[in-house]
Amino acid sequence: MIEMKGVHKKYPNGVTALNGINVSIHKGEFVYVVGPSGAGKSTFIKLMYREEKPSKGSVVMNGVDLATLKERKVPYLRRNVGVVFQDFKLLPKLTVYENIAFALEVIEESPKKIRRKVMEVLDLVKLKNKARFLPNELSGGEQQRISIARAIVNRPGLVIADEPTGNLDPDTSWDIVRILEEINSRGTTVVMATHSKEIVNTLKKRVIAIESGRIVRDELRGEYGYES
């Protein structure tokens, strides 16, 4: 699904975030991306949904090189990629229902399909009863579940989660990871950047460890490998 070859990323301020990344992520995998702060994890993640472009090398998703993809085609790429952020990024003046529906309205789905799909994902994250609530009326864990619902409502092939449990307590963090596992079990590829040693070491998945802009470990059933 994703292949990076010879990827380097140097920012205008001179900072080199990635230095010679070569990796393949296959359809249906669940992958943790780990490493110390400043290692390059966020840049690695952002390359996958074309928030950043490599300075050198190729990032190919489903046969499309994101490095050379025209800007006008980026929104179409992102229809097949759901992104979950640490700080939720919900629209504060829209209800839970409206936040999720917005992702379908921009691609001009019919109102009937929007309602069906929104209620399906709300059922998956167990928040159908909060459809008319505003984000500030929800707990942090509930907001993150809505963020996940919004990310998957268009049934993307890939979900990218950038520190999705970073602002949550341990019990709530497990709820979020179990939802991501459920999504993965239905065939969606999941790539999750995390600092959670407990989650990584308990749920044995593929682990890609990045340090100083390089992949230093890539293990099919890896461990976190750092103090946390």
From TrEMBL:
Keywords assigned: ATP-binding, Cell cycle, Cell division, Cell membrane, Membrane, Nucleotide-binding, Transport
One GO term (biological process): cell division
Coiled-coil region list: none
Localisation: Cell membrane
Pfam families in the cross-refs: ABC_tran (PF00005)
Membrane-topology descriptor: Peripheral membrane protein
SUPFAM superfamilies the record matches: P-loop containing nucleoside triphosphate hydrolases (SSF52540)
InterPro entries noted in UniProt: AAA+_ATPase (IPR003593), ABC_transporter-like_ATP-bd (IPR003439), ABC_transporter-like_CS (IPR017871), ABC_transpr_LolD-like (IPR015854), Cell_div_FtsE (IPR005286), P-loop_NTPase (IPR027417)
GO cellular component, one term: plasma membrane
Domain ABC transporter: 2-228
Keyword flag Repressor: no
GO molecular function ontology, one term from the record: transmembrane transporter activity
Main subcellular location: membrane
Source organism, top-level taxon: Bacteria
Assembly with partners or alone: Homodimer. Forms a membrane-associated complex with FtsX.
Function: Part of the ABC transporter FtsEX involved in cellular division.
Similarity field: Belongs to the ABC transporter superfamily.
Protein name as catalogued: Cell division ATP-binding protein FtsE
